[in-house]
């Protein structure tokens, strides 16, 4: 039977941004309904590398930028939540690595001496040697330098699972939610499965899906941009754990490697960075060959003989900026009775929720409604990319 459901905040999109905000708002006493059109975490979040950046990557030019400063507090925010001392209780979520690393394969580090010596980075970047080196570099053939960053790497599908637990009965699945618009351009309600959801405020956290939602609603600003990537996945039974940016000759990492557990007990190296940015122009086979050559050059002692290889095309969705530059912070823009947002990084989900809470408070939106949401169809959790990408 069709009915009208009332809630304080209706969130569209169940990636890291929507799920984190949903849990945070519930913790503050707001009633919420989060509508997901596919599977929770099935967008960029579940395909991300899980690095909780502190901004070091953006400081490779030799000076800290606005991006690195705004993001610098995020590792501690996440760490506190993972330990049960933060704004959300994420105890039990799998931490894949206590640290992410920077690794220079050769003499290049000398060009970056200023960067490593900079006062702003003191305490955030430590050179590591000998027994402190990650296992993969503890090989007599390794000649480069390794730096440990104050950044962590989480198992994103596991974080999504935990955030969905914190959501209680606020999650609802609908493959095509419809926006109902009032004459003044604000949102009147969202229609799902024949029900109407009415909220004090609506939040768009649908990632790439925000574009179609904004179109459906009839709003042209803010506009969205896509940054296409083609990631490479390597799966094998004996891959050593590796969480590192490999430095190249440009300020962007030549390759960023993270390691993820597969359901069949094997491990998957997930390769991003410039390899994935430049790889969008290559066929999957050509990109795999390039990745194989790169790894042979960088880590020739690692045995990749029995590994499976594949690629994953995926877009980053961000607010439009001239020249496709990387946005600096989580983005949140109020439009009528709606907040339109893109975190721009997984790591910035707490920052996005700060901005949303502060907007709601400044607009005088307080917790006030409490409907019964039981019995609504619940979205599934997305399967990890490394479990479904291999043929
Ligand atoms: P998404 O995760 O894309 O979630 C949006 C959700 O909305 C999806 O579940 C989708 O199904 C749903 N949806 C879409 N349309 C609708 C609709 N009409 N109605 C309802 N629901 C809808 N960031 C980091 O900080 N660290 C990293 O290591 C990192 N690595 C990355 C690697 C890759 C390959 C990529 C692509 C991104 C990476 N990022 C990383 C960026 C990060 O993943 C994203 O910024 C972040 O996950 C975006 O989260 P989101 O919740 O906004 O979007």
Automatic annotation (TrEMBL):
Keywords: Oxidoreductase. The keyword Transmembrane helix does not apply. It comes from the Bacteria. InterPro entries: FAD-dep_OxRdtase (IPR006076), FAD/NAD-bd_sf (IPR036188). Residues 8-301 form the FAD dependent oxidoreductase domain. This is FAD-dependent oxidoreductase. It comes from Halopseudomonas salina.
């Amino acid at each position: 039977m069709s009915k009208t459901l009332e809630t304080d905040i209706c969130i569209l999109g169940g990636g890291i941004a929507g799920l984190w905000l949903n849990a945070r708002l519930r913790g503050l006493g707001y009633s919420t309904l989060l509508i997901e059109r596919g599977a929770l975490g099935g967008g960029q979040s579940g395909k991300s590398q899980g690095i909780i950046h502190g901004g070091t990557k953006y400081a490779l030019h030799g000076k800290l930028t606005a991006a690195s400063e705004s993001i610098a507090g995020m590792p501690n925010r996440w760490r506190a939540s993972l330990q049960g001392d933060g704004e959300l209780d994420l105890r039990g979520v799998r931490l894949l690595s206590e640290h992410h690393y920077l690794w220079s394969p050769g003499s290049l580090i000398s060009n970056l001496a200023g960067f490593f010596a900079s006062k702003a980075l003191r305490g955030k970047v430590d050179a590591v040697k000998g027994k402190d080196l990650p296992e993969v570099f503890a090989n007599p053939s390794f000649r480069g330098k390794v730096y440990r960053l104050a950044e962590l790497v989480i198992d994103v599908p596991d974080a999504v699972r935990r955030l969905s637990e914190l959501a209680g009965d606020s999650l609802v699945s609908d493959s095509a939610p419809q926006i109902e618009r009032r004459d003044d351009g604000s949102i009147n309600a969202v229609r799902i499965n024949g029900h109407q959801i009415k909220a004090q405020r609506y939040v768009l956290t649908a990632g790439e899906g925000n574009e179609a939602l904004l179109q459906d609603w009839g709003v042209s600003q803010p506009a969205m941009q896509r940054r296409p990537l083609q990631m490479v996945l390597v799966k094998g039974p004996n891959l050593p754990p590796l969480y590192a940016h490999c430095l190249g000759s440009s300020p962007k990492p030549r390759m960023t490697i993270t390691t993820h557990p597969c359901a069949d007990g094997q491990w998957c190296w997930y390769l991003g960075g410039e390899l994935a940015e430049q790889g969008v122009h290559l066929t999957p086979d050509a990109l795999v060959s390039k990745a194989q050559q790169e790894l042979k050059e960088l880590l020739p002692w690692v045995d990749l003989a029995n590994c499976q290889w594949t690629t994953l095309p995926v877009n980053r969705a961000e607010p439009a900026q001239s020249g496709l530059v990387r946005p600096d912070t989580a983005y949140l823009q109020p439009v009528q009775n709606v907040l339109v947002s893109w975190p721009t990084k997984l790591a910035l989900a707490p920052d996005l929720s700060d901005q949303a809470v502060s907007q709601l408070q400044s607009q005088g939106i307080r917790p006030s409604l409490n409907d019964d949401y039981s019995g609504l169809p619940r979205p599934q959790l997305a399967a990890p990319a490394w479990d479904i990408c291999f043929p």
